[in-house]
Amino acid sequence: MSTTAGNVIRCRAAVAWEAGKPLVIEEVEVAPPQAMEVRLKILYTSLCHTDVYFWEAKGQNPMFPRIYGHEAGGIVESVGEGVTDLQPGDHVLPVFTGECKECDHCKSEESNMCRLLRINTDRGVMIGDGQSRFSINGKPIYHFVGTSTFSEYTVCHIGSVAKINPLAPLDKVCVLSCGISTGLGATLNVAKPPKGSTVAIFGLGAVGLAAAEGARIAGASRIIGVDLNSNRFDEAKKFGVTEFINPKDYAKPVQEVLAEMTNGGVDRSVECTGNITAMISAFECVHDGWGVAVLVGVPHKDAEFKTHPMNLLNERTLKGTFFGNYKPRSDLPSVVEKYMNKELEVEKFITHSVPFSEINKAFDLMLKGEGIRCIINMEG
């Protein structure tokens, strides 16, 4: 790979030219990494709902042409000036957020919201010089959340790349770079359910199932899944969900149903939908005195969270989390080790796989609501 260092690489990338239109496999030019950047050879990537949301461009600034993708695994091809933590050949996970290790957030043990590199969906260029590293016939193609993994090669800021165990299979652990870690960390790092506790999970998509997996690992005795789609329950059992509630089946609010099922409320709840009604229910369903609710889902920009202050005064705790409170460079390697030690099961999240040439099939599956994660093999 070293023969390409310092040179422009021509490779395939799936380019989104217009909102909601199928991606087109194009030959793109990928410039060498600049200071504090690395160029990665992406081996496997997967599709996350965030990619689809911004590709559809409903409700945010459309930015096209663009290369999406942010859940992936790859190998460092070359490094830019000043990079000492990574070298060619390292196995890595690129991440949509980052860890500069210098700002007040990175220096805080309590935060992972790096001031320099936290997610910015409106930035389509590199943070160092404001330029794109992708082009077609000299015309720039925009980046997405600093990763753009729907390309055989991509350039990332050093702070958005986690070096992992080279023995870890990239076609499996690539899913740990976004949604799975978000849900897992929301439970293990933020909700922290005691062994034997009851946990409610609102929303049984990939993030919610990962939150359930976290509750299973923590030793929860009851894991109650809440979802408007009853077809999700059978799949959810594989992730430790023991009971299922569809709010549509009840005349009363779901928080009241949960309180009756659990003698006053659950010990912990994790909300993974972004629906404001579900967020309020997730808070109001926890037990007074010790209950903790954690919000993960991203709500509508105009949403308002309304609850009676007595719910807080009666010693319920409401928390929010971003990326499961994991610092990408410091903490993701240990999440990969959980998989390597067979503590965390990743395979059950992966329901489909397609070759890169058929990447639009992955979009079709997600739009139909089929499966959990689809792996895209960049060699295909």
TrEMBL record:
One of its GO terms (molecular function) is S-(hydroxymethyl)glutathione dehydrogenase [NAD(P)+] activity. Its EC number is 1.1.1.1. Transmembrane segments: none annotated. It holds the Pfam family ADH_N. Its cofactor is Zn(2+). Keywords: Cytoplasm, Metal-binding, NAD, Oxidoreductase, Zinc. It catalyses: a primary alcohol + NAD(+) = an aldehyde + NADH + H(+); a secondary alcohol + NAD(+) = a ketone + NADH + H(+). It is found in: Cytoplasm. Its main location: cytoplasm. Signal peptide: none annotated. Residues 36-164 form the Alcohol dehydrogenase-like N-terminal domain. One of its GO terms (cellular component) is cytosol. InterPro entries: ADH-like_C, ADH-like_N, ADH_Zn_CS, GroES-like_sf, NAD(P)-bd_dom_sf. Residues 206-337 form the Alcohol dehydrogenase-like C-terminal domain. PROSITE patterns: ADH_ZINC. One of its GO terms (biological process) is formaldehyde catabolic process. Belongs to the zinc-containing alcohol dehydrogenase family. This is alcohol dehydrogenase. It comes from Protea cynaroides.
